[in-house]
Design goal:
Helix content is 38%, strand content 20%. The protein is built from eight helices and seven strands. The strands form two sheets. A five-stranded mixed β-barrel has the order 1-2-3-5-4. The chain has a two-stranded antiparallel sheet with strand order 6-7. Helix 5 crosses helix 7. The radius of gyration is 22 Å and the shape is elongated. The N terminus is likely disordered.
């Protein structure tokens, strides 16, 4: 009897086991003296926020893992009726600092982080967006930024359900193949010449073709493509306009990229 009660007491005080998951660090905020709040995009649990206790002091548990867009294996504990999880430790998988940094690459990484932070709902897994992000991070390590940025912007907008149909006019249904399409920042959809708005912009036929290429091809297959900033620039603007309309906010890092 004595042994049984001791075992029962140990089981009741041991608490739940930590949850472990792949994750990408999106951003951090100071919290108390040496703690940090960490926004994580996890593979199994979606976007969540956790408190990393003594993160500014403990290099053993968190050293090198708290930079934005770092891929980690995170260990955390959840408690009922609490918004933040408790981060126990994070193991480094891939760091953006492992490759040389330049201003365009930093701007692109910050853009990806801001889009994910703004677009992802809390605690709602999006494995397709997670896989997209890992692929884009890999592409940003090895080459110029404009192809990965174009790929990410187009695909994240599509995966969130916000990318307009590029094939037909949203007003009359007329097919747009072979003709320039028109769009406005405040309106969903593309339009033919007859139904374009007074302040509309043009999406070129070349950019529609580029969208088809980005939709069909894995990002690794596009690494050898010449992709200067001017290529599909109007397509990026269209996707960005759709993102910002649905987010109801301006993405500051998109303006930084536009100035490169």
């Amino acid at each position: 009897m004595k042994q049984r009660s001791t075992t029962t007491m140990q089981a009741s005080t041991s608490g739940p086991a930590p949850i472990q998951t792949e994750a990408i660090v999106l951003r951090t905020w100071p919290f108390h003296e040496s703690d940090l709040v960490v926004s994580l995009f996890t593979r199994g649990h979606g976007k969540l926020r956790g408190v990393a206790r003594a993160a500014l002091k403990s290099r053993k548990r968190f050293g090198g893992t708290l930079e934005p867009m770092t891929q980690v294996r995170a260990s955390f504990l959840e408690k009922a009726r609490q918004d933040f999880v408790r981060l126990d430790a994070m193991e480094l998988v891939r760091s953006p600092l492992s490759s040389p940094l330049n201003y365009p690459r930093v701007a692109a990484l910050e853009y990806v982080a801001e889009v994910l932070e703004a677009a992802l709902p809390e605690r709602d897994p999006h494995d397709d967006v997670f896989r997209l992000t890992l692929a884009v991070l890999g592409a940003l390590e090895t080459g110029p930024v404009w192809m990965p940025v174009s790929y990410f912007t187009l695909w994240v907008t599509r995966l969130m359900g916000w990318m307009p149909d590029l094939t037909q006019c949203a007003a009359c249904g007329r097919l747009l193949a072979g003709t320039p399409a028109h769009y406005s920042a405040g309106v969903d959809g593309l339009f033919c010449m007859e139904h374009r708005g007074p302040a509309s912009r043009i999406l070129s036929t070349e950019s529609v073709q580029a969208a088809g290429l980005l939709y069909r091809s894995p990002i690794s297959a596009l690494a050898a493509e010449a992709w200067p900033r001017s290529r599909a620039e109007d397509l990026r603007r269209l996707a960005l306009a759709s993102l910002e309309r649905h987010l109801e906010k301006h993405l500051h890092t998109a303006r930084t990229l536009a100035k490169l």
